Structures are given as C-alpha cells and as structure tokens.
Amino acid sequence: MLTLALQNTIGPGSDKQVATLFAGPGRRLVQITLRQRARLAAHTSPVPITIQCVAGAGTLTSTTLATAVALPPGTLVTLEAGEMHEVNAAPEVSILLTQFTASE
C-alpha cells in the first residue's frame, strides 16, 4: 500500500504543470494542472485512461462525445485506448490522470 499526496488546491505556477505521483505495474497516476486557460491539445493514449477533476474547472472534448463534458471537482471520465481527446482549463483546472498499463 502507498499513500499519495494529491493536490486539491491550485496555487501559482506554470501554465502547464505535470507531476507523476505513481508509476508501477498496471497503472500510472499523473496530476496535471492547467492555469490561465491553458489546454492539453488533442491527443490519444495507447492505453485506457480515467480523468478526474480534483480542483478548479475545465472541459473535456472527445471524438466520441457529441458535446464537451464539464469538469467540476469530483467528475470522473473514462476513455478507451486510442480515443482522441483534449482538456481546456476554465480558467484553471487540476486533473488526476490514471493510465492503465499492461502488467509486467
């Protein structure tokens, strides 16, 4: 068992801040904070992922969704491998990204 320090407030910092919280067999946890309306440009992941908003607000758009998904704190979205998506801060958002990797 491992306890991780998840930041649930957004303080000053760079427009895009990425911190790997855990990398181990089967999963990787990354906290991404976007400030000043920054965005993660459209991209895909080679593995299934979840995106959970932990602070601030933003939107998630995906090629499989007809509309953008609001990301207030507590929202959890699942995406399949290869699904094109992007995240936009409104005006700042912090998300927890979980990547489900193959166990070794």
Summarize the SSE layout with pairings.
Layout: E1 16-24, E2 27-34, E3 39-43, E4 49-62, E5 69-71, E6 76-79, E7 85-100
Antiparallel strand pairs: 1-2, 2-7, 3-7, 4-5, 4-6, 4-7
How would you characterize this protein structure?
- By secondary structure, the protein is mainly β.
- It is 0% helix and 57% strand.
- The protein has no helices and 7 strands.
- Strands 1, 2, 3, 4, 5, 6 and 7 form a 7-stranded antiparallel beta sheet that branches.
- β4 and β5 (69-71) form a beta hairpin.
- The two termini are 18 Å apart.
- The mean pLDDT is 94.
Please outline what is shown here.
By secondary structure, the protein is mainly beta.
Keywords, please?
104 residues, 0% helix, seven-stranded antiparallel β-sheet, mainly beta
Class by alpha and beta content = mainly beta
The proportion of strand residues reads over 45%
| Annotation, overall tally of beta strands | 7
SSE string, helices as H and strands as E: EEEEEEE
| Form type | globular
Question: How is the biggest beta sheet arranged?
Answer: 7 strands, antiparallel
Pick out the low-confidence regions: none
Q: Report the radius of gyration as a whole number of Å.
A: 13 Å
Write down the overall mean pLDDT.
94
Count of separate DSSP helical elements? 0
Distance between the termini: 18 Å
| Helix content bin | under 10%
